Amino acid sequence: MSVELRFGAVVIAKASLSVYDCVAVTELRPSAPCQACVSSRWGCNWCVWQQLCTHKASCDAGPMVVSQQSPLLSPAPPAGDVPTPFPPRSPQAPVTSVPDNLPVEPGVPSTATASAVPPGDRPSLLSPWGPGAGPGPVPASASTESPLHEEPPPPDPPNRPGTAVPAPTDSGPTATPEDLSASHPSPSDAAALPPAPADPGPEADPSAALLDQPPGTAPTTTFPGAAGSVKPAPDWLTREGGELPEADEWTGGDTPAFSTSTLLSGDGDSAEHEGPPAPLILLSSLDYQYDTPGLWELEEVNRGPSACPCVDSVQGSMLMPVHVEREVQLLGRNLGLLQDSPGDSECVMELEGREVVVEAWVECEPPPDTQCRVTCRRHQFSYEALQPELRVGLFLRRAGRLRVDSADGLHVVLYDCSVGHGDCSRCQTARPQYGCVWCKGERPRCVAQEACGETEAVAAQCPAPLIHSVEPLTGPVDGGTRVTIRGSNLGQHVQDVQNTVRVAGVPCAVDVLEYEVSSSFVCVTEASGGEVAGTVTVEVPGRGRGISEHDFAYQDPKVYSIFPTRGPRAGGTHLTLHGSKLLTGRLEDLRVVVGDQPCHLLLEQQADRLQCETSARPTPATLPVAVWFGATERRLQQSQFEYTSDPNVTSAGPTKSFLSGGRKIWVRGQNLDVVQTPRIRVTVAPRALLPSQGLGRRRRVIPETPCSPGASCGGHHFEEPCHVNSSQLITCHTPALPGLPEDPWVRVEFILDNLVFDFTTLSPTPFSYEADPTLQPLSPEDPTMPFRHKPGSVLSVEGENLDLAMSKEEVVAMIGDGPCVVKTLTRHHLYCEPPMEQPLPRHHALRETPDALPEFTVQMGNLRFSLGHVQYDGESPVAFPLAAQVGLGVGTSLLALGVIIIVFIYRRKSKQALRDYKKVQIQLENLESSVRDRCKKEFTDLMTEMTDLTSDLLGSGIPFLDYKVYAERVFFPGHQESPLHRDLGVPESRRPTVEQGLGQLSNLLNSKLFLTKFIHTLESQRTFSARDRAYVASLLTVALHGKLEYFTDILRTLLSDLVAQYVAKNPKLMLRRTETVVEKLLTNWMSICLYTFVRDSVGEPLYMLFRGIKHQVDKGPVDSVTGKAKYTLNDNRLLREDVEYRPLTLNALLAVGPGAGEAQGVPVKVLDCDTISQAKEKMLDQLYKGVPLAQRPDPRTLDVEWRSGVAGHLILSDEDVTSEVQGLWRRLNTLQHYKVPDGATVALVPCLTKHVLRENQDYVPGERTPMLEDVDEGGIRPWHLVKPSEEPEPPRPRRGSLRGGERERAKAIPEIYLTRLLSMKGTLQKFVDDLFQVILSTSRPVPLAIKYFFDLLDEQAQQHGISDQDTVHIWKTNSLPLRFWINIIKNPQFVFDVQTSDNMDAVLLVIAQTFMDACTLADHKLGRDSPINKLLYARDIPRYKRMVERYYADIRQTVPASDQEMNSILAELSRNYSGDLGARVALHELYKYINKYYDQIITALEEDGTAQKMQLGYRLQQIAAAVENKVTDL
C-alpha cells in the first residue's frame, strides 16, 4: 500500500508498505507447514515445538528452523541499532517501508483476484516462495529483479551452535517496485483471511486459532468466496481496479484497536497514538507479534526447508492387507528436533472420512546424520467400501494436534482379498503382490496369507466346479443355442473349460469373448441328432467335474397350425400359432416371421401356443409362416398366411347420439371381415385445449388440423367394441359420455386393428352428441297408479329432446312382453300402438299373481324408461234393472250391520291380544339380541380369516392332471381307475387272432353306416340301460379318438337324428339328461375340445376356488362322524351347534427311517377339536405338499406320535381305553382330549402290525385300537362334536322364568347359525365371481368348438323351423354348461390331482347349482320356503344371468367357424392327445356288446340295402369268427 504524509496539499513524505503475516503462509500448505514457512521470501521462521510460523528470531522453547531468505544471519550487526523492545500488548504485523523514490509503476497490476487464480499461482504475500522452494511458480518480475533472489545467502549447516545473528540496518536490501507490485497483498488477499478479535489478551498464544482444533484435524484454512467455502466473499473483493474498502467498511464504524502509526512502526503501543481510525487487517488466526528481547541470542540455528522435521516415505511395501495386524515403518529426517518436546507422537491414517490413530516411536541416527525411522504400532485395519484397494493418507502428529511435515501424497494402500474373489479360482487369480490365498475351514474365504489361522488350511488346489444355473434349459436339436452357465470355480482361464463342456452329453463350444473367470461363460451347443435330455457338465483338468442340478433338453419344436389364416396388409392381426415345444431356447431368440415380415410376439406365451401381431406389408400376398429358435427355423407346412387388401370404410351413419350412448352406427365398406377387433372410439376435449388454438386470430398460410388422428389432444377417450356382420358391414354402438365440456370438440374414429378411420372423412356431417331425452310417466299425477288404457287407442307420451338423436325405428317400446309399435316421434311426443289384448308382464312366471299388470317401458339406446303399469279397460257395463238396484241396497245394509258386529267383537279380543303381544315382544327382543350377538361374532370371525386367505392360496403351483388321466376320469366317472387298464383276458394262443379281429373291428367302425346302425340298434333294446349307453359312448370315444374329424361327423349325424326325434315331442327337453349315446358322446367331445381352454384359462380360478373352499372348511370344526362343518354353503351340512375350539400350530415331522425325526419340522395348522385322523390328514397335506396323491402314503399305514423331550413318545389314536364312554356312546379322541399344547412336536410313524401291551403302558396304541372293556362292539356308537339324541327329549315344564324360556328357544331355533352360510359366501364371493367371469367372458377368443357347436344348434333350429330363441337357449345351456362346466365345477378332481371330501362336494354342489340357475331362463320367485342355497345367491343370480345372455349373444355375433378351421383343430387334438388311452381294450369291450346283441345287429344290417352292398354284415361275421371263434354262416 502507499502511505503519504501531507501538510495541506503539499506531500511531505511518501512510502509503499507491505503487510505480511507468517501464519497465512502455512495455511496454504497444511501437509508441510514448516517447509511453507521457511520457504517464504519474507523471512518467516518456524518454531518446531510450538508448530508456529513467526517473524520473530527466537522461540519460547525448543529449536527453530530459520528461513532460507532471512537477512538475520549477516556477519556482524551494527552496534546500537537494536530496536527498542516494547512491552507485549497485542500481536501486530511487521511493516516494511519502501522509500518514496521507488514509486510503483502504474502499469503493473497490484494483485490478482483470489477467486480467479489458484493459491499456488497467486503472486502475493501468501505465496512468496522463491524458485523451487514453494508449491507454485513465482512471476518472472519477482524472480529476476528482486535482490533477494539474485543473491540468496548460502544456507548454514543446521543446528550449528554459537552463531551470531547481526541486527538489520536501514541500508539493508529493499524490494524493487516490480517486486513490491508482485508481492504486496491485495484487498482480496487480506479479505481471504478471517478477521481478528479486537483485543486479544497480552498472554494470548498467536497460534491459538491454529492449535485449538480437535485432535487429528489438519490445520487448513478455507477462504471466503473460494471453492469449497461456505462464507461469501466480501463485496469489495469483486470491485474493479482492486479498490480498497473505506475505513468504515473495515471497522464497521467502531474505533479500531490500533492507529496508523502502530501499523507503520510495527512495535508501537496503540495507547500512545491517538489519531483518526485507519483500516486494520487483523485476523484471529494470524500471528501479529512484536520483537522480543533477546532477538539475537539464538542458541542453535537450522536453516531452510531441508532442516524441517519431515516424514518422507513409507519404508518397504505400501500394500497392507485388512484384518491383519501390521506395523508401518516410515522414513523421515530432522525428526530429532522433536525430541524432548511435550506430547507423544502418533501415526494418523485418514480412513473413509475418519482418523485411525496408533502410537508411534521415532528413532534417529546420531548427528550429523539427519535420517530417522518412525515405527507405527501394530494395528489391524479394515474398511467398508466394496473395492479391492483403498488408498489411505498418512501423516505424523504429536501432542494430539500438531502435524509434522510429510511428503505430498504420503499414503499406504489397504487391500481386501475377499472383494471380487468369491471362490477359490478367482482368489488364485488375484494380483500376485496381494498374496491372497483360499483359506479352508468352516467358512472358506479368500484372505491374505497371514489372515488364514493356524486351525485353517491354505487350499493348494481349488475344488471341483459348481454349476449354479443354466440358461436356457432347452434348445433345438439342430444346435446353435447360446447357453449361459453360471457358477463358481469354473476355471481360472478360458483354456480350462475350452473343450470340457457337455450339454446333455453333447459338446458345447465355449465363447472366448464371454468368459468371466470362475463365474460364468457362454457356450454354443452342437447338433444332438435327436431329442435327448441330460445334465450340463463342466470339467476343469485336475479339479474334477461339475454337474448341474437341472437337465437340459434338446427339443424338436414343431408348428402345426395358425389362426386366423388371413389378415389385412396394414398388420395388427393377432396371429395364434399352435404347435409343440414352442418355447425352446431363449425367449429373446424366439422370432416369428410371415414371409420376410416380422410378427411381433405378445407378452404371455405358452409351450403349445404362440401369439404375435403381424406387421404391415406393402402389397397383398400369401406367405409362409416360420418360427425361428435362434438360428433354427421351423416352417409351417400345411397352411400359409394371406395378407389381404386393407379394409376400407366408405360410409358411416347416423351422425348423432345421445350422451348416454347405445345408438347403433352402421359402418359400410369392403373387406371388413378381415378385422379381428373393431372398435369405435370417441375423443372429447375442450376446444380451448387443442394445440392449434391460440389467443386472438392469426393468419396462417398452412392450414392446421385441430388434432392429428390417434392423438389424445388433452381429451378423454371412450371406446366400445363393434361387431363384424359381413365383409361389407360393421355395427357399432356409441359409447356413453359422462358429460360435455363447454365448447366441446368431439372426434369419432373407427379402429380396425392397425387402421383408423375418422368419421369426418366418411360423412359430410360431423358427428355430435346431444342431450339425453326425458319422458314423463303415463300417470304424471301419481306414477304409482296404473294407467287405464282403452283397447284400440294409441298411447301418447310427453317428453323432451326425443328426436334429437334417435329415429322412431330405433325406439323400442314394450308393454310387458308385448311390443308397442312406435308410429310417430317428435321433439316432445312419442305415439305408439299397443297390442289389442293386455300382454303378460315381462319375465312372467307361473308363481306370479294372475292380476299382475304389465309395465310400459321405452328403450332409447342405453336409456331405459319405466313409465308405469298399464291396465286395459273391459267392456262398458250395461244398465242395472230396478229390482237389482233394490236388492243391492238391502244387501249393502245387511253387510254394514255385520261389519259393526264384527268390529265390536274385534275390539274385545284386541285388548287380550295386546297383552299377549307385549309378552311376545319382550321374548322377541331377547331373541333378537341373541341373534345380533351371534352375527357380530360370526362377522368378527370372517374378518379375521379373510386377511390371511390370499397368502395361503399362493402356495405351490396348480397340480394339473395330464390329458390321459383327465380323459379317463371324464369318460368313466365313478370308477376308481379306468376300466381300460385291464388286459384283454384271452389265452396267449388266441391273442394274435383276437387282436387281428379287433383291428378289423376298428376298420369297420370307420363305416358311418355301420356305426349309426350299431348305435340305433343298441338303443332300441330294452335291456340296454342308461349306464350301458354312457359306457358304450365312452368306449366309442376312446376307439375313435385318433380320428376326431370322423368322430365329430358321427356326432353331427346322431345329433340331427336326436333333434328330429325331440321336435316331434317337446324340443325343450332335448339334451337335459344322458338318455342316449349321442348325449354322452357330446359330453366327451366337449371335454376333449375344451381341455386346453381349461388348462390355460379356467384352471387357475377353479383351483383358487377349490383351495379357498378347503381353506375355509378346515379353519372351522368338522364333525368326523356326521360330516357337518361350521363353514359351508350347504345348510344340510351346517354344524348348527356352537362348538368351542382353539387353533393350534404343530411342528410335524415325517419319521420314516433312522434319523428322520431330526429333520426340520413343518408347521401345520390344526384345531384342538380335530380328531387324530383329521389332524393326520392336515399333516399329510403339509408334509407332502407338491407330491402327487399317488405317491403319498396311505393314512391308514401311519400313526401320529406326540414327542415331548428326549424319551417322551406317545401314540395318538381316535379310539383307545382313555376314550369317553357314556352308555352306548363313545366319543372320538381329539387333540384337546390328549391336551396337546400349541407348538407341540408330532411325527408320522409307520403303524405297528402287532401291538403288545407293556407293563408301563396303560393302553395299546394305534388308531381304532380295539377296546379292552367287555362291551358289545355292535352296540357302541361313536360321536365326535355333537352326540345325536337317542330319543326326543320330553318337553320341559313351562315355568314363569324368562331365562328358562330363552334356553328353550335357543335350542328350538338353530337357524340363527345360518349366518355362517353368509360368512362363507362372502369369503368365497371373489373366487366364484372370477370363475364365472372367465367361463362367460368373450374378451379373449372363445374356443372354436363352442362357436362351432352353437352354430350347429342354430342351424338345426333353423332347419326344423324353430324360431323360439328360448328353445335354442335351452339347447345351448344343456350342451355346454350342464354337460361340461357343471361336471368340472362339481368334480375338480377331474382336472387337478386333488382329493375332495363330502364337505367340499356339498359346497361345490351349491356353486354348480348357482351356475346352472344363472343359465336357465325361468325366474325363481323366492319366498320363505325357498332353498337356502337359492336365497344365498338371490342377488347375484340376476347379474350372472346377464353375463350368460351377453355370452350367448357375443358368440352368436362372432364370425362363423368354418369346417376347415374346425377340422384343423380336431386334427391337431388327435395328434397331441391320441396316446395310449386303451383303444384295443375299448374295442374288446365294444365287441362284448356286439356279441350280446349280435343277432339284432346282423338283422339290422341285412335289412338295409346299402349295408348289404357294402357287405357290412359279412365283415362283422368275420370279426366274430376271429374274436370269439364263433361259427357263422360264412
Provide a descriptive summary of the structure in words:
This protein is of the alpha+beta class and 1530 residues long. Helices cover 27% and strands 22% of the residues. It contains 33 helices and 66 strands. The radius of gyration is 52 Å and the shape is extended. Mean pLDDT is 77; it is low at 73-299, 693-706, 875-879, 1250-1273 and 1286-1309.
Unreliable spans are 73-299, 693-706, 875-879, 1250-1273, 1286-1309
The secondary structure category is alpha+beta
Beta strand count: 66
C-alpha end-to-end distance: 144 Å
Round the Cα radius of gyration to an integer and report it. 52 Å
Number of helices: 33
Instruction: Give the proportion of residues in helices.
Output: 25-40%
Percentage of residues in strands: 15-25%
Mean pLDDT across the residues is 77
Outline the biggest β-sheet: 10 strands, mixed
Tertiary shape: extended
